[in-house]
Design a protein that fits this description.
It contains nine helices and seven strands. It is an alpha+beta fold and 314 residues long. 24% of the residues are buried. InterPro entries: DBL_dom_sf, DH_dom, FYVE_RhoGEF_PH, PH-like_dom_sf, PH_domain, SOS1_NGEF_PH. It is found in: Cytoplasm, Cytoskeleton.
Length: 314
């Protein structure tokens, strides 16, 4: 008799989960454990670095090896009597939020492996030695570390397929649909965590370019637009090169530094966005000009083109 489609997908979930747990075992019990053991002798790399590379892989490994895989296996052994996996996946979904931390840390981890492989030959040798083992299947540590990053999207795909193939009257339909929704939310949570990390990293880079002025550094700020601009001086009818950073709450009017040591710009003026007015000026001598007036003062600025002016005004 032909196996029903939904059972095939459930079996694929179990098989890939078994392979995944083996991969997590390799990361946590082999790479992490052995690098940590060496780090404790103080010869290869600081313990802190090893911890930073592997993030919370131990919790992820324990959860899958001790809870999710055994639960899934029990379900599949009992399939003919009770064909369902939706409820088990509902139990799994909230724990997948643990991945947010691992995924956020991934790029940093790969950078650390590269940097310390150059700095510490014994560290590099130990990784190379583990990579030669049969269990590594000729793949690098970085390659194995990518697996948890890709696991949640994999659950989502398999579960989507499973729900699609379920007969309408299946006892698992309600649970499976709810589980899919939960997995979808977790995937979104993981993506949001990455987006937030990128936002903060980009913000930090901007603050460094501005010389880390303490009244400007605020993690809740959002950079909306930045770019060069000409400042019009009505006194002597000339323009000079300036640079603007527009945040959600303030406009920084800056001067590019000639000698770039540390900061790239010097903040000349900080204007509050609250109460600010912006309008286009029809100036025949200086095209693409607009006026920004705020509590602090009024600036007459010239963009390089009409489009650029409109982008700033917007």
């Amino acid at each position: 008799m032909q196996e029903p489609e939904e059972k095939k997908i459930a079996l694929e979930l179990l098989e890939t989960e078994q392979a995944y747990v083996n991969r997590l075992h390799l990361l946590d019990q082999v790479f992490y454990a052995e690098l940590m053991k060496e780090a404790k002798t103080g010869k290869t790399v600081p313990e802190e670095v090893v911890k930073m590379i592997f993030s919370n892989i131990s919790s992820i490994y324990q959860f899958h090896a001790e809870f999710f895989l055994p639960e899934l296996r029990k379900r599949m052994e009992d399939w003919n009597r009770n064909p369902r996996i939706g409820d088990v996946i509902q139990k799994l979904a909230p724990f997948l939020k643990m991945y947010g931390e691992y995924v956020k840390n991934f790029d940093k981890a790969v950078e650390l492996i590269t940097a310390w492989s150059e700095k510490s030959p014994p560290f590099q040798e130990l990784i190379a030695d583990i990579q030669k083992r049969k269990v590594c299947a000729n793949l690098t540590l970085q390659h194995h570390m990518l697996e948890p990053v890709q696991r949640i999207p994999r659950y989502e795909l398999l579960l989507k397929d499973y729900v699609r193939k379920l007969p309408p009257q299946s006892p698992d339909r309600g649970d499976a649909e709810k589980a899919l929704e939960m997995i979808f939310m977790v995937a979104k949570h993981s993506n949001a965590a990455i987006a937030e990390m990128e936002r903060l990293q980009n913000l930090w880079v901007v603050y460094q370019r501005l010389g880390l002025e303490d009244d400007i550094v605020d993690p809740s700020n959002e950079l909306i637009k930045e770019g060069p601009i000409q400042k019009i001086s009505t006194r002597n009818n000339s323009t000079s090169e300036k640079y603007l950073f527009l945040f959600n709450n303030m406009l920084l009017y800056c001067v590019p530094k000639v000698i770039q040591v540390g900061a790239e710009f010097q903040v000349h003026l900080r204007m509050d966005v609250e109460g600010m007015k912006v309008r286009e000026l029809k100036d025949t001598e200086f095209p693409h000009t607009f006026l920004v007036s705020g509590k602090q003062r009024t600036l007459e600025l010239q963009a390089r083109s009409g489009d650029e002016m409109n982008a700033w005004i917007k």
